[in-house]
From TrEMBL:
Keywords, comma-separated and alphabetical: Phosphoprotein
Record InterPro entries: CheY-like_superfamily, Cyclic_di-GMP/3'3'-cGAMP_PDE, HD/PDEase_dom, HD_GYP_dom, Sig_transdc_resp-reg_receiver
GO biological process, one term: phosphorelay signal transduction system
Coiled coil: none
Pfam families: HD_5, Response_reg
Organism, as annotated: Ectothiorhodospira magna
Protein name: Putative two-component system response regulator
Record GO terms (molecular function): phosphoric diester hydrolase activity
Sequence positions bearing 4-aspartylphosphate: D54
Every Response regulatory domain range: 5-121
Ranges of residues in domain HD-GYP: 148-359
Domain of life where this protein originates: Bacteria
């Protein structure tokens, strides 16, 4: 193991020689005969593990040197022991206030010097050990968080694609609506009505939750879900149950953990209420206005736009301009007026997203 490095700073050659002789058998010793030389030596590799710093030096005294060392990131943590011939207790107090770890008065007593040096180096080694352990732990925590995030995203997409396999013509619907939701949420984040709710972390959770909006379709019979023509009243009544079924499925999954999972809370909101309408005429609960969670109101616009502009087994795709016109005309009826306005403001970006991620059969 390499010997610790000690930097001795003193303007008297005799003192430098004496201190070097006392310490060189146990440590790698470097010397500087002025404050300026000390500052240069402190940032030269190998960096000193400890500095013995004379207080009374011409031009740049020990206090000024220590003040500079503490102001630089690369030297601020190097322990410093002051060396001085002064015996006034106020000088010792001043040195400790500046950040010195210890204070040795001249003439130097070899046993005291070695003991104080050894103590400060042991303290530094213990501190460095803890810092290294903390850095390792922080890196491990960060790695596990990334792993958990990836696992969570894979599970979400797997569940969403499970629903998608029941309705194979939806193609990139999950991806597009997820990007639409983020785009709308980021646009609304500056609006006074929403800025307290749509903070960056919530927008991330909302984006993560969006793919689960139609998870309840897993519970809808193929004869209804894949019917090429219009649904009759009984079939439509069954079809509408997918919103509640999605909510119930996520709630059951949530019951298996012992603490709330934020993205599942938003996923439940989206699954259950993304077919509600601003005027209260939607389903499954007939909520109106601000009683509809903002997560569901954003999802509604994204879902309707994508449904209208995508081909389905029961209908062809409509031009994007027609979807824009429909959403604009339904402002304040089907859709939250402010969410509608946000959609209009980013409509061109919606069209770019749709063109970037077309369904396979449209390529």
């Amino acid at each position: 193991m390499d010997k610790p490095t000690i930097l001795i700073v003193d303007d008297e050659p005799i003192n430098l020689s004496l201190l070097t002789e006392l310490l060189r058998s146990d440590y790698r010793v470097r010397a500087a005969n002025s404050g300026q030389h000390a500052l240069r030596a402190a940032i030269t590799c190998p960096r000193p593990d400890l500095i013995l710093l004379d207080v009374m030096m011409p031009e740049l005294d020990g206090y000024a040197v220590l003040d500079t060392l503490r102001g630089q990131p690369e030297t601020q943590d190097i322990p410093v022991i002051f060396l001085t011939a002064l015996n006034d207790p106020t000088d010792e107090e001043r040195g400790l206030e500046y950040g010195a770890r210890d204070y040795i008065t001249k003439p130097i007593k070899p046993a005291v010097l070695r003991a104080r040096v050894r103590t400060q180096l042991e303290v530094k080694q213990a501190r460095d050990f803890l810092e290294n352990k903390n850095a390792i732990l922080e890196a491990e925590i960060a790695r596990r968080m990334v792993d958990n995030e990836i696992t969570q995203q894979v599970c979400i997409r797997a569940l969403a694609h499970l629903a998608e396999t029941r309705d194979p013509e939806t193609g990139n619907h999950i991806l597009r609506t997820q990007v639409y939701v983020r785009l709308l949420a980021e646009k609304l984040a500056a609006h006074p009505r929403f800025q307290a709710m749509l903070i960056p972390s919530t927008i991330d959770l909302l984006t993560k939750s969006a793919p689960l909006h139609d998870i309840g379709k897993v519970g809808i019979p193929d004869s209804i879900l894949l019917k090429p023509g219009p649904l009759n009243d009984d079939e439509w009544r069954i079809m509408k149950t997918h919103a509640r079924q999605g909510f119930d499925a996520i709630e059951r999954a949530e019951a298996d953990v012992d603490h709330p999972v934020p993205f599942l809370i938003l996923a439940k909101e989206i699954a259950r209420w993304h077919h509600e309408k601003w005027d209260g005429s939607g389903y499954p609960d007939g909520l109106a206005g601000d009683d509809i969670p903002i997560s569901a109101r954003i999802m509604t616009v994204a879902d309707v736009f994508d449904a209208m502009t995508s081909a389905r087994i029961y209908k062809p795709a409509l031009p994007m301009s027609k979807a824009r016109e429909f959403i604009g005309d339904a402002r304040g009826q089907h859709f939250d007026p402010d969410v509608t306005d946000a959609f209009m403001a980013v409509y061109d970006e919606f069209t770019q997203i749709a063109q970037r991620h077309p369904d396979a059969e449209s390529v």
